[in-house]
Each structure stands twice: as C-alpha cells, then as structure tokens.
Design a protein that fits this description.
The complex is a heterodimer of chains A (532) and B (399).
Chain A: H1 5-19, E1 42-43, E2 46-47, H2 48-57, H3 63-82, H4 91-98, H5 101-104, H6 107-123, H7 128-158, H8 162-174, H9 184-196, H10 204-212, H11 215-220, H12 234-244, H13 253-262, E3 266-268, H14 271-275, E4 288-290, E5 293-295, E6 305-307, E7 310-312, H15 317-328, H16 331-345, H17 352-364, H18 369-377, H19 380-384, H20 393-405, H21 414-422, H22 446-460, H23 492-498, H24 504-511, H25 516-525, H26 527-530
Chain B: H1 3-12, H2 21-24, E1 34-40, E2 50-51, H3 56-61, E3 79-80, E4 86-87, H4 96-100, E5 104-111, H5 119-128, H6 142-149, E6 155-157, H7 188-197, H8 204-229, H9 238-251, E7 255-260, H10 275-294, E8 301-307, E9 327-332, E10 340-341, E11 363-364, H11 365-377, H12 381-387
Parallel strand pairs in B: 1-7, 1-8, 5-10, 5-11, 6-7
Antiparallel strand pairs in B: 2-4, 3-4, 5-9, 8-9
Helix pairs in contact in B: 6-12, 7-8, 8-9, 9-10
Classes of the chains: A mainly alpha (532), B alpha/beta (399).
Organism (chain B): Rhodanobacter geophilus
Signal peptide (chain B): 1-27
Protein name (chain B): DUF1501 domain-containing protein
Amino acid sequence: MPATPTRRRSLALGLLLGCLPALACAGQAAPPRMPTATVTARVDGLSLSDIAWLRRDGFGLDSATLTRYRQLGRTRFLDGELAGADDTLPPQVAAQIQAFPVVGTPLPALLADFRDRQKQYKDTPAGPAKDAAKKALAQYRRGLEQQAAQAELLHAIYGGDQLKEQMVWFWLNHFSIYANKGPVRVFAADYEERVIRPHALGKFRDLVMATLQSPAMLVFLDNVHNVQGKTNENYARELMELHTLGVGSGYTQADVQQLMRVLTGAGLMPPKLAMRGGRFGRERPGVVRDGLFVFNPAKHDFGDKTFLGQTIKGSGYAEIAQAVDLIVRQPACAHFVSQQLAEYFIADRPPPALVDAMARTFRRTDGDIAAVLRTMLLSKEAAAVGGHKFKDPMRFLVSAMRLGYDGQPVPNALPLVNWLRQMGEPLYGRITPDGWPLDSASWTGSGQLSKRFDFARVIGSGRNRLFAGNDGSGAKLTNDPPPGVPDLQGSALYRDAIAPRLSDATRNALAQAKSPMEWNTFLLSSPDFNYR
Amino acid sequence: MNRREFLLAAAGAAAASTLSFSGRLLAAPADSPRFLLVFLRGGYDCNNLLVPCGSDFYYESRPTLAIAKPAANDPDSAVALDAHWGLNPVVRESLYPLWQKKQLAFVPFAGTNDLSRSHFETQDHIERGEPLGHETNYRSGFLARLSGLLAGVPAIAFTNNLPLSFQGAGHDIPNISLKGDPRAHFDERQAAILSGMYKGTLLAQASADGLALPKTVSADLRNEMVAASRGAPSAHNFAAETRRIATLMRDQYRLGFVDVGGWDTHVNQGSTTGGLANNLKNLGEGLAAYADALGDAWNDTTVVVLSEFGRTFRENGDHGTDHGHGTVHWVLGGKVAGGRIAGEQLAVNPQNLLQNRDYPVLNDYRDVLGGLFARLWGLGGGQLQTVFPQARPKDLRLV
C-alpha cells in the first residue's frame, strides 16, 4: 500500500489500537483497554493495516497469500481476487476433492443410486439382513454428507482466492440447506461446486436463479411439492424473507401467496429420465429443463398474479424470471444483502454509511457482488472498525488450519468435519433455513469458548487423525512423514504477521507454555487470533 | 450481599476479579422454585398433540392427518382428556400419567401477536419478550431480565449457543450443551493461563466459566452418565439429555433453558406414526424422564413448553401443515394445578379461525408467563414490567 513512511507509522498505530481484540461493541460501555502491544510499524513490506486487511479479506493468513500481496499491493491483489485470477488448489487437494463420489458422479446417477438403495432397504424382509441393511444405508447416507462437507472445507483451507472462499461459505449460509432432509445430502456437493461457487462473485440475480433451480433448494424448501391445486408456500416465503428482501421490508402474506403461485411447477425430473437424456415433456411447449431441474407447465398455475404491486401475466416459466427481477431490483434487496455482507465481514453493527455505500453500488451495478465487495473492502468506514469480529467456528477452524499447516495438504479431512460439528456450526447442518448467525455474540457463550479452546488444543497439539486413516488402524495415508506438532513459533508467518501485533496478555501466556503443543494451543486460543 | 449485588460488584471489578466460576456460584435457597423453559423451534403442530377431537371441523380439515376420536378398542385413537380435547396417543405412556396426576396443564390459543408467520422473526420476538413494534433492545432476552431480578436463582442454558432469551443479562449466564461430551480437557494451570489472556476483555467471565463449567459438570454427571447412558459421552435421545439436565437443575441451577428442533412439518408429517409422532414421543419421554430424574425436586419444579407459532388448521396438499399462528403451551410440574385446559378458549370451528387459516391467540404468552412468574417468585407489578414491558400479567393459577 503506497503511503509515506510517517503517515504509515501513525496509521499503523491507529489501526493497531483499533485492532485490539475484545473491546467494547458500539453502544456498550468500554471495558478497560488491554495492555498495548509493542508497536512495530512495518514488517518486511507489510504494515499492520495490511495484515489487518488481509485477515478480513480471507479466512486466515498463509505464506502464499502474504507473498502475493507483497507483490501486488492491496488494490491489485483485491482486483485479482474479485476477477477469480488465482482460484487454484494444490493438485493433491484438487484430486482429493474430485475423488469424492458426490463430486465426481453426475447428479442424476447419484440420485438414482440413492433411491435404489433406499428401495432395496425397504424391500429387505425383516430380520438380521434388514438390520445389516439399515446400518449400511445409514453409513452410506452419512458418507454423502461427510464427503460434501470435506470438499467444502478443503476448498476453504487450500483455495488460492480466499475472498471467494469466504463468499462461497457466506452464500452457502445465506441460501442455507440442511443435508439431513430427504435427498438434500445427495445434492449438497453439487450445490457448493456448481450452484454457489460459479456465482459467488457474479450477479446476485444469477445466484438467486441458480439456487431457485437447484435440486438442493427445491427439495429443502419444498418447492418440489408446490404444484397447481396442491400448493406449498415454504420456499416462496423464505426466498423473500431470508434470501433477498428481509422480513419487515414491506411485502405481505398476499405477496408470499402470489409468489408461491408463480413458482408452481418448478421442480425436479425423475432421475432415471434425466439419465437417459429424457424425452420428458419434450414435445410439450413450455417445458424448461436444466439438469435435474424441470419447469412443468402442466403443474403450473397460469392465472395472472399481482406481486409487489405489479401484474405478472400468466405465461409459465418466464413468470419466475420476472418475479426474481422484480425482487432483486427492490431497494430493500440491495440494502438487505449489503447489511448481511457487512455484518459478516466488518462488524456486528456495521456503520450505516458503509452499508448505504454498498447498497448504492449494488443498485448501480445491477447487483454485481464483486463491485459491492470492492466498495466494502476499500472503504475507510470498514477500516476504522477493525478488530471486533470474533471468528465463528468455520473461520476459526479454517484460519487455524491455514496457519498450522501453511498449504501442506492433509490426506484425511474427515476430522475437520466432525470438529466443526462439535463447535456448533456444521456445514449443511443448520436445520432452519436462516443459516448460522453472523454476529459475534452468537459464538462467545461460555460453552462455545470452552469448545474453542478444546479444538485449539486438538489442532495445535498435532494429536489428531489428519494424517491417518479413520479405521483406527493408524495406517498412514501418505509416504511423507506426518508433520507432528506444527512449528508455529518458528514460522515466518508467525514472525511476519502475528508476532508484531500480539497483546501483552497473550505474550505472557505464550511465555508460560511448557511445550510447543501448549504454545500452539495458547496462540490459537488467544483473543489476538480469534478476533479480527 | 445477595447474588445480584454480588454479581454487580463482581462485574464492576471484572478486570481485577480472580473469582473462578465455582467461587462465584452461591448455593440456591432450598425452597427456591426451579423453572425450565423448553422451546420447540420450528412451530410444532399443536393440533396433532392436543387434539380438538370434539370438533367435526378438525376431521373435515385433516382428511389424512387427523387423529381418531377416542375409542376404547383403538390404540391409535386420541387419549380423551375431556369432552373437547384429547392427546396424541404417542404420549400416552409419557405425558398422560402426568395429566392423571394433575401435574400437566395445556394452554391452547396461546402465542404472540406477531403475525409475520416467520419462524425467525417470531422466535426472536418471543425470546426478547418486548411488545411488538416497541422493541428497545434487540439483544435483551426476557429470561435474562428475569434472572437479573432473582437473587439466588442461578441460570443456565443447556444449548450450544447462548439463546437470545438469556442474552443481555449484564452478568454472564453460562451455556453448555449436554447432548455431547461435556468433559474438561485442561488442568488448573492451563485453564488459568487461557482465561488470563481474556482478563479485562468482554469475554473475561465467559472464558473463565467456559473453562470451569466442564469440570463441575463432569464431576456432577459422572455417576449419572455411567448409570443412564452406560458411559456413552453423547446423549442419544432427549430423555438421556434431560436426565443430565435434571442432575444440574437439582443440584446447582434454578432457571434453565433448552431447545428442541425439527418441528417444521410442511410435508408428510404423519399422525400417530411418522416424523411428528417420533418427535412428540421423544419430547414426551424426555419430559417424563426429567420429572423422574429430579425426584423430590420435581415438587418445586415448573416446566413450560412453547413454540413460536401453531400451524395451519387444515392440512396442505402435501400431507403437511404450513406456518400458522396460535399454538398450545404446556405447563408441567410437581405442584402445577394441572389436569385441565387453562386460559381463554373458543369453540374450534371455521368461524373462529384467524384469517380462515389458523388458531387465534387469546392467551398472550407474555401475559401468561408474567402471571406464572408472579406466582412462582412473588414478583411485583414493576418487576414484571421489567421482564415483559407493557404486558398485562394474567393469573391462570397454574401453580
């Protein structure tokens, strides 16, 4: 970041104070300040404000990110991310993800297999064979969900474009699905890889349409059951309340019911028909297909609708695009999405001026997500309120892995899935469609801090199964020697990006560590690591 | 110094305080009532729990979901409670005995005046406990305000996350989920170093409690866990969890919260079998286990079960029900004046539905709980206004 040395020094000091963790949230009395840290204005080409900015831009720091940032500077680094210029994975990790059947198998085949297995179990006569079949089915079902969660965690930890990775999680959470409902677990990996990921930095409208037509959402929020004469308003309501406009933004119960009518007939193909390339409804006009998605005019309510004050003429599939356009162009939508983004990235109560600026960008660019993020991440308002966000478990886990292993692939990602579940924020595990809360207060209860310290120990001690199989045999999954206890204290990453901004309290704790394991545990448990 | 003064003093000196969690905990007076709030998230279908079996309209409205009128020779028929109401037979073994002992009451037509029919909006509204449209603090829950008024009534949430009900108390309210493995992993020295890093921050108390609570809990639960779950660290059903809750509520806490999810039954909800039936059975067994595990302490225990709203009175096209309005609250306890349907009621017919869709609310939850809290702890009008601003506490003589 170009700045004169004197200005940089004072800026760094100001930001350092702003970055001190655990200070008061707006509206609350300020607690005593933490002892000030040793001020180092600039470390090897990176100012403290650069580090603070990077800790927000990505899930967490690793060496590759610091190197690229040093080369490009903030603006070019950000623009590269927004353009998806370095959306890469280490080859070993890419292969690991591709090897998961939920990623590598076409969806219709995956769904057909799921249904076949369920039917097989149902048809098995009662007795020991049925008991065994039940166990096998449960294991298979659990496997689908675990594979999908592993794929997303591996992306988050190793993905080169960390801003995009955070956005993939953000949208997965914003358009939340619950794997344990019916066949949603079959669709979860597809939802992340092919529905959310391609649109994570694109146009918001395209993202809404992609989720609307996704098998995961169609099943989770029941629009597969929303047909003429037998309607279901579940998705119609949440589409406005949770995905786009926000509750209390002015739409009515009548709007929900009108949107429900618009959405009648949007559902899924029978998988075996989709596998055959299907002639389902080909000859009938008005059928629209895309993968497993089908719009079936025979199940659509063709009456005219009055929605958000406008008339939507009964015309079939086109009504859906018309309604979505109407929704995403409401000022409430620009504001709602901007507010959520700012809560996730910046502060529990983000400065209204920041949210307004983001909402203006949203409207000016017709909902261009990358442009809205650019406004947010380069704004002075955002820079001024750093250090108050307590990491949610996903951010904690991913940032701890990035710091601890610094790009080294782990052959077994399953433990990560279980750790996240135990910390209370499992992927595809939120039963209600509102997604996990974005505010810090939701993750700072005593029970959650206790779990956080526990998993700081599990990761920091290196005593885990990331380099071993899950069968309990202790068999190695790789020829490389397992890394043992991560050497955080001796790493350049610690020296350059963490040590310069540590508080005295954390330094004191680290000085009392009796082993590298304890040292790591304390660092990963510290307020300095957990706030950003 | 009572607990409240003590806590305020402790909070004022938070930066310097070295009090551990256990040091802060004061023994509750022997005669202090115990209260547990059970929040059913998702809007449970009250019409298939407390069945309006005296209403022909119910049977017309639910061709595939209705539960049959009580019949002596049909085990799948409703269990008759009075001329108008029956119970889903899946809770015959668990809840009906409590009803017979007059330790269980139902309050139908209960809920809020929030008509958004949104889960999240309505849950938040209920947990805040402020009048609709006059919210002043989005981070203050009614149980937290109640806790602030009660000396010697230690509070705890048996959840992974501190629920909104308990947020904004001004003193730390611990939370711990008893579903999983609650064992402690740090020794005294490590715990002191870890909490030392948070000294003087907003998380000072929470981190200290977080490190101390698993120790206390593991010690407390050791016997129970071995006995009830054969040493398994995870509770496999709600009954296993409520037995653990009972251990803590019997020995250490007086004000508790737990939530149960999975009630949003838009599709194929079933009647006496299926998803909803399984959930109700699990819930009923959990509450019966709670009563059993508390032993004598059940006699000064009150449990309230509530949910954000009821569901549509008529079944939808998918053998399920959609978001509705009025619901049925449950009140259980050793000294509860139960065996009755309490509160204002209406005949169940099409004319009395709200918007021709769902139950109206005649018994506002703030009024009902306010009346109950007044009787439990002898709270005065001003104190009740702190808990539920602008409510008009209604004394249903439930305890």
